[in-house]
Design brief:
There is one protein chain. The protein is 33% helix and 24% strand. The chain is built from 12 helices and 13 strands. Strand 1, helix 1 and strand 2 form a beta-alpha-beta unit. The longest helix is centred in the C-terminal third of the chain and has 21 residues. The termini are far apart.
């Protein structure tokens, strides 16, 4: 096929990432591809200087005075800038600065980037992670173009502990270079910023039916894995950054396990019996781990207090809502 503007878009969500997001933006700008890539960067009403970093990066590296191609406009939900990089003509930024924090009110941000989402492939990168290999996207798209039976392509990554100021061992589990949904159902092994999916409307439809989850990356991995195999490239092409502001990575098990089990309960109906069985095994193991953490520690966790809907994993263990 002829690769063009409908080939790939990258979604980047940012919130209070002023100290990190310049690395993310540079990782986008260095990508060398034979096709244009639209990087849709959504700032969720940060209360630090993330927006200033975004604005300065645009002013320094992008063409902002060409109304025949890009635009800069105010909307009812925020400010939107669309522009092309000065030197890398295949690098296009769509920067959306939301007026209201949507995470806090549990409101979807999909409606704001769907204008750029009509592409064959999708890449992801959070605003505190970053890419290091300029050929990352090209390698992944080339593989998926040549292998129609794969729906996901990801790669190796490094983990940087921001608090300690050093790279640490990656705790995510190792898998062979080719896997499938059965292996993924046993537990996650894909860092979000390493993945490229086929843009599947069936996945989008299923995702719209699953609400109120904090672990959306694993859900996306699982839903996409319904439609093809999973390829792991050996190249290390990105960095996952652990920082104290992380929504997930730095939290204790007493926080993460209840929310993870809530997610498992919600996604099980979307898969066949074989996959459900493996997901259920994962659920039971998490419940055992919660039991050994102890009732008082679990009850004092933020996850426990978030609401009755997440208490399913506690019921069999005899924990009651207090």
């Amino acid at each position: 096929m002829s690769l063009n503007t409908n080939t790939l878009h990258t979604l980047c969500l940012a919130y209070n990432h002023e100290s990190f997001i310049k690395d993310t933006l540079n990782g986008f700008a260095i990508q060398q591809t034979t096709f244009p890539v639209v990087y849709v960067i959504i700032d969720d009403a940060s209360i630090d200087h993330t927006v200033d970093v975004l604005n300065n990066f645009l002013k320094e590296h992008f063409i902002l005075d060409d109304p025949t191609f890009g635009f800069d406009k105010e909307t009812d939900y925020g400010h939107v800038t669309f522009a092309r990089h000065k030197n890398n003509t295949n690098c296009l930024f769509a920067v959306i600065r939301l007026k209201e924090n949507h995470y806090r009110i549990a409101k979807s941000k999909y409606q704001y980037y769907k204008d750029w989402a009509n592409t064959k492939y999708v890449a992801l990168c959070e605003g505190d992670d970053y890419w290091t290999d300029p050929l990352k996207l090209q390698k992944q798209v080339d593989f998926l173009e040549a292998n129609e039976d794969f729906s996901i392509c990801f790669h190796e990554a490094k983990v940087f502990n921001q608090a300690e100021g050093k790279f640490i061992e990656d705790g995510i589990r190792c898998v062979p270079s080719e896997t499938d949904i059965m292996e993924l159902a046993r537990g996650n092994f894909i860092h979000t910023m390493t993945v490229v999916y086929r843009n599947n409307p069936l996945v989008i439809n299923d995702l719209a039916k699953i609400n109120g989850i904090i672990t959306g990356d694993y859900v996306l991995h699982m839903l996409n894995a319904k439609y093809g195999k999973i390829k792991k490239l050996p190249d290390c092409m990105a960095v996952y950054r652990m920082n104290n502001g992380s929504v997930w990575g730095t939290k204790e098990e007493a926080y993460r396990l209840p929310l993870w089990n809530e997610m498992l309960i919600k996604i099980m109906p979307f898969f066949d019996e074989k996959v459900q069985s493996i997901l259920h095994e994962q659920y039971l193991q998490n419940s055992k781990d919660l039991f050994f953490l102890g009732g008082e520690k679990v009850r004092s966790s933020l996850a426990y207090r978030l609401g009755y809907s997440i208490l399913h994993p506690f019921k069999k263990l005899g924990y009651q809502k207090s």
